[in-house]
Automatic annotation (TrEMBL), chain A:
It comes from the Bacteria. Residues 168-279 form the STAS domain. This is STAS domain-containing protein. InterPro entries: Bact_StressResp_Reg, STAS_dom, STAS_dom_sf. SUPFAM superfamilies: SpoIIaa-like. It comes from Eiseniibacteriota bacterium.
TrEMBL record, chain B:
Residues 1-112 form the STAS domain. SUPFAM superfamilies: SpoIIaa-like (SSF52091). This is STAS domain-containing protein. It holds the Pfam family STAS. PROSITE patterns: STAS.
Length: 296, 122
């Protein structure tokens, strides 16, 4: 190959890539049925998408194949991106895993590459040129689908975390002006902050005079969170509410003593029942058993 | 901006309506401490509902007001601290120690009414 020839080749490289991709798309269009069958066979063989039925796999494979070829044809990824997101939304709730999604896209890439091999194996220069055009496009598609899937998963995880956070710190009114705040599970600094916010807002919204924070369900907390708890108690006092903390585990008691809590500021009672009784007493309630209890 | 001080029966009520300069707060302190004696008031309520920020000077001065008023024979209640403000304050270590705080004006009045009634029986 002369120098002049090489120059001409690099100049027309992008045009020839486009031309090759057009040829490729035509080839994939002609052999659509056969290649799709081959792909589905490999999916089944690889035990991928086990959560879906055969018909579903067939329908899904058809539309993936078509959007794949379309992405090669138009050389844009937008339509495929939208499709990948839509697909992820549908299949994630059914328990399809990341490796399955990435696996099927890579399988399709391989199946198509094989068919290119067998078509162009006689002319190795042309085969190389075709693969040069095909591979970057195919890889871009695989990345798009995988990223779309992962992104959708992350979105769902974020949503669920939000839901758990909402659920995990209820502020409940048990009597007029008495709130209880049962805390269960691990408290990280983020959750601690949220807890404080909800408590202070709850005090204001319910015009609470007393709040019982029950931490029976919290096994341990570090010094930062313990400090935060003390600050919360102080802040509630500034709003005119008294806080009673109940159910301190031995570990938490140790932590509180180690950080040097002023016990005069912190009102603690052994268990939730004791805390509520103490709160009722402070509010002026008196609970007495009625003479004849109802039969249970 | 000057803070209006209203005389309501045996109480003085000061409602802060906008952010105050340090000089304004000092003026409020002097006016309250003076008027407690003049009107023979039994209680002082300072309403800070409108404040989005309580810095260390404001907090310190309000605490001083409470202690001075006590020496002049009355009790001070600070009412209407916003939740966000309360948390910011304790974070800075401004806890208004030894000062009574209540949710709002109504709670503050209720507190004073009880305390003064029980004092009368003593």
């Amino acid at each position: 190959m002369g120098i002049a020839e090489l120059r001409a080749e690099s100049k027309t490289a992008s045009e020839s890539t486009a031309a090759l991709l057009r040829e490729l798309v035509a080839h994939l269009g002609e052999n659509r049925t056969q290649l799709r069958e081959e792909w589905i066979r490999r999916i089944t063989e690889g035990r991928l998408l086990t959560a879906m039925s055969k018909d579903e796999i067939f329908a899904e494979a058809t539309s993936v194949y078509d959007s794949y070829v379309e992405a090669l044809e138009t050389r844009t990824l937008e339509a495929l991106q939208a499709y990948a997101q839509n697909l992820s939304e549908r299949i994630i709730p059914r328990g399809v895993e990341t490796h399955e999604v990435v696996g099927i896209v890579l399988l399709l890439r391989d199946v198509l590459a094989r068919s290119l091999f067998s078509k162009y194996h006689a002319d190795s220069r042309l085969l190389n040129a075709v693969l040069d055009a095909y591979e970057p496009a195919a890889n871009a598609i695989a990345i798009t689908v995988a990223v779309g899937f992962v992104r959708e998963r992350e979105r769902i995880i974020r949503q669920q975390q939000e839901a758990i956070r909402e659920l995990s710190t209820p502020v409940l009114q048990v009597r007029e002006r008495l709130l209880i705040l049962p805390i269960i599970g691990l408290i990280d600094p983020l959750r601690a902050r949220q807890l404080t916010e909800q408590l202070l807002r709850g005090v204001r919204a319910n015009r609470a005079k007393l709040v019982v924070i029950d931490i029976t369900g919290v096994a341990a907390m570090d010094a930062t969170v313990a400090n935060h708890l003390v600050l919360t108690v102080e802040a509630a006092r500034l709003l005119g509410a008294r806080v009673i903390v109940t159910g301190l585990s031995p570990e938490i008691a140790q932590t509180l003593v180690n950080i040097g809590v002023d016990l005069g500021k912190m009102n603690t009672v052994g268990d939730l029942q004791g805390g509520i009784e103490e709160a009722e007493r402070l509010l002026g309630y008196k609970v007495v058993p009625i003479a004849e209890p109802m039969p249970a | 901006m000057q803070v209006p001080i209203l005389k309501q029966g045996p109480y003085l009520i000061a409602t802060i309506q906008s952010a105050l300069t340090d000089a304004d707060i000092v003026q409020l302190r002097d006016a309250l401490v003076e008027q407690v004696g003049r009107y023979r008031s039994r209680g002082v309520i300072i309403d800070v509902t409108a404040l989005d920020v309580m810095d260390s000077f404001a907090t310190g001065t309000l605490r001083d007001v409470a202690h001075m008023v006590r020496l002049r024979g009355a009790e001070t209640v600070i009412v209407g601290i916003q939740p966000d403000v309360a948390f910011a304050m304790v974070h800075m270590g401004l806890t208004l120690e030894g000062v009574t705080t209540r949710l709002d004006l109504e709670e503050g009045l209720d507190h004073l009414n009880r305390n003064i009634k029980s004092a009368a029986y003593r």
